[in-house]
Automatic annotation (TrEMBL):
This is Germin-like protein. Keywords: Apoplast, Disulfide bond, Glycoprotein, Manganese, Metal-binding, Secreted, Signal. Residues 65-215 form the Cupin type-1 domain. Pfam families: Cupin_1. Residues 1-24 form the signal peptide. It is found in: Secreted, Extracellular space, Apoplast. The keyword Metal-binding applies. Its main location: secreted. Belongs to the germin family. The keyword Phosphoprotein does not apply.
Length: 221
């Protein structure tokens, strides 16, 4: 019996110590909201961020205007992403959600990319989109769908995904992300446009390309 009590006490102490070590993190907000501020002078430190005193919060801390305006799609890929995250709406801080508007030129695309910190749910407002994502190694299974206005599609967190406008007219989609700042890594830009550049020998072997092709791709990204 004494041995059982000793084991129980040891487990309790280990658990208590673990809780003490983890006390700096909480998976959900500890208050109604935490409006982010850049100057900590007038804020309080909660959940790892400096927050405005809740009594000083105003409507504009939770407001953004402009998603009705089309983005400029005159670029190499023919798309534009208008982001509404914690940088645009400071009241999103700690709430784990953000929004984007994506405009596509005719036959434009949102090229293969990932969001390292968020799952994306996309709804088509205008046009016809070919969308898809690729599962992780070793399967690398491609899952695709053609979407029409009103259709919804989900891109799981961290997986490479894309959207392509199949039509000869502009397309528009809106997407929610499960993070106040989901981040984005555009594959081609990251691989061929890194700063400083990745050694071409690495990319030549990785992609099984001629080295001249690799250096050309690096020059345009």
């Amino acid at each position: 019996m004494k041995g059982i009590h000793s084991i129980f006490l040891a487990c309790f102490l280990v658990s208590a110590f673990a809780c003490f070590l983890a006390s700096a993190f909480d998976p959900s907000p500890l208050q109604d909201f935490c409006v982010a501020i850049n100057d900590p002078k007038d804020g309080v430190f909660v959940n790892g961020k400096f927050c405005k005193d809740p009594k000083l919060a105003v409507a504009d801390d939770f407001f953004y205007s402009g998603l009705n305006k089309p983005g400029n799609t005159y670029n190499r890929v023919g798309s534009n992403v208008t982001t509404v995250n914690v940088d645009q709406i400071p009241g999103l801080n700690t709430l784990g959600i953000s929004l984007v508007r994506i405009d596509y030129a005719p036959y434009g695309e949102n090229p293969p990319h990932t969001h390292p910190r968020g799952t994306e749910i996309l709804v088509v407002a205008q046009g016809t989109l070919y969308v898809g994502f690729v599962t992780s190694n070793p399967e690398n299974h491609l899952i695709t769908k053609i979407l029409y206005p009103g259709d919804v599609f989900v891109f799981p967190i961290g997986l490479i995904h894309f959207q392509y406008n199949l039509g000869n007219t502009p397309a528009v989609a809106f997407a929610g992300l499960s993070s106040q700042n989901a981040g984005v890594i555009t594959i081609a830009n990251a691989v061929f446009g890194s700063n400083p550049p990745i050694n071409p020998d690495v990319l030549t072997k990785a992609f099984q390309l001629d080295k001249n092709v690799v250096t050309h791709l690096q020059s345009i990204f």
